[in-house]
Amino acid sequence: MDNHDADFTDPSLVEPHYSTRIYKGYLYYLKKKFGVEGAKRILSKTGLSWKYLTCESNWVSEKYAEIFYDVLSSEPGIDPDFSYQAGKLSMSNEVQGAVQVMAIQLLDPLYIFKQITYFSKQFNKTDRLEIRKLVSNQLSLVFESRRKTRHLGLILDNWRGFLEQVPSILGLPPARCVIMPQSESLALFEVNWVPNRLHRILRIARTILGAAFGISLVLGYFLFASICTTLFLISCFAIEKLKQHLNGTSQESLKGLLKESEDRYQELHESKNRLDRRYKEAHLLAGVLQRISSSQEIDSLIKTTLKEIQESLQYDRVIYMSFNREQNTLSTAASQGFEPKQSKLIHGYEIDLNQSTQSGMHLGNVFKERKNILIPITSDYFESLSEEGKMMLYLTKSRSFLACTVATQGNLHGILLVDYIRADKTLDKDDLYFIQNFAKQLAICIENTHTLLEERRLRSTFQRFVPAEVIQSMMGEIAINLEDGVNQNVTVLFSDIRQFTRRSSQIEPKLLIKAINYYFKEMTNIVYQQQGIVDKFLGDGLFAVFNSFGTVENHAAKAVLAAYEMQQAMPAINQWIKDHLFQNQVWDPMEIGIGIHTGHAIVGNLGTENKTEFTAIGETVNTAARIGELSKKHPSSILVSEEVFQKTSIFFEFNSLGPSKIRGIERELNIFLVTAERLVSQAKNHRTLKEAA
């Protein structure tokens, strides 16, 4: 069982049970003795919480009563007579309850005892307390328990402390109460108290006046009887006036409490309504944001959003008017809640923003000035509308209306409108506040969706030529203006097939294209694995760039490693082409030459509006291409510049070819040949390449 709530599945709850009045006395005692935190700690051992036992509407089963008494009886620091003390505190802390009302009416402890026995029958289903005998300021009470409990002594002590405090309600000294057990479930209480002087005087006066009145009747002394009667009536009248005064005071207090409770309830009700609205707003915004990730089109996002606004917030109708920048107009893009005829009318409605008007409620002015309008009751503003506005209001039957501009700080997108056609509904400032904030979020959502669509377009364009990790870096981690270009430190690789022109004249074009396509596919995969980009295919040649976006570490070594793997892949490529395309024909295996250079190049988009391509240009690219041409003198070779050699010599072994004259370059370049058969094995470890960057 949870330590914070009673177990309401307990079958004993349907058996006789008793009120928490007794427990509240123990709570007062524990709070006074140990403080609130100490009392909560002790109660946690019983399985009942402080909050549960202090609630007037809760009832406790017998099972929990036994646990409660056991815990308190064994708890260190509790007085031996704790049950008696709890009984005294129970009465003294409930003085403001029903017992005080009885005291106001009675001014007599005896009658209060009678009422206590009455209430015990109503609220206590397991214990019975009845008056057996009463004489003046003494009475005998019979206590009978229907429970089988080991704690009858504690229960009797509790009642003794409670009963002794009854006279204190009227300002009298505590009563003296003696317990006389009769059996395991039966006991007698002998209670006597000391009446005060007023009580004695009232009792004697009543007795004397009653006797005098009787004597006057018997002896016929009518005058004496009249006087006595008058005095008697005066005393009764005074008592009645006192009762009325006290009752009036109590009623005024009750009325004040009732008024305060009603005001508090109204405040709580309004707070609940505000919280409900905020919850719906948050839920609605969360739904819109969630759909952005899956939205393929702006139109789909708008339509779904309008539907949720209407259904969640119970507006009669919702409209979104979209801004057309080319035509400078506002037109209905989506609506929700309109009848078919009205929907057709609304979707044909257009506002020309080029036309000017002085009306502050004209939607065109609202949009251009980024304002919002609220018209709680449209009939109040009818005369201030333009003729077109009056006609639209007449046709749409709108009774309450508001409009908010959908815009970010930099862009205008449209207008969001909601209305009521029901006479019992009116839009207010809370609605304007929400729709205004929602319109801002909707504008952000629209721009984000545009961004996502643009990102998908870019991914679709680049994914055929750029590795996935490079696309990820391009979209998320770096910001390169592809239109203006950027000066980037790159490594460029050129490769081509030896004697391709002679080969192409001897092979059927269809088979040649299939062979070259398979070759390019394998080469491209190798370049991708080393985080390079295939810039373009040049006939039988391949132009690749490493570190176009500044995201590849030690790109020169990765370019050399890619070149080595390209050479290593050629036997398998030739075998596949032979087996799948030239089974019965002669196939002369292809050989490739590769040239590599590293340095700065301009990376960006080149072309016109009709055709644009992403590429790298500059002296570094030209030098790499010329080194690739030089590789024709060295079959199946990988030639690199001195700059590449300096950056990669810790991974590879090279043979220097000495200074070489390169076509198109005035100065001679030191060229190095990669000795692939002596390639350092660590070069294949990408982690090592990354650490050397």
Quick description:
With 693 residues, this protein is α+β, with helices and mostly antiparallel strands.
Task: Describe the structure in your own words.
The chain is α+β, with helices and mostly antiparallel strands. Helices cover 50% and strands 19% of the residues. It contains 21 helices and 18 strands. Strands 11, 12, 13, 14, 15, 16, 17 and 18 form an 8-stranded mixed β-sheet that branches. It has a 6-stranded antiparallel β-sheet with strand order 7-6-5-10-9-8. A hairpin with a 2-residue loop joins strand 12 and strand 13. Helix 4 crosses helix 7. The longest helix has 71 residues. The two termini are 63 Å apart.
Number of helices: 21
Helical/strand content category? alpha+beta
In terms of DSSP E residues, the strand content is 15-25%
Low-confidence stretches: 1-19
Radius of gyration: 49 Å
Portion of residues within helices:
40-55%
End-to-end span in angstroms? 63 Å
Number of strands: 18
The average pLDDT score comes to 76
Shape: elongated
Largest sheet, if any? 8 strands, mixed
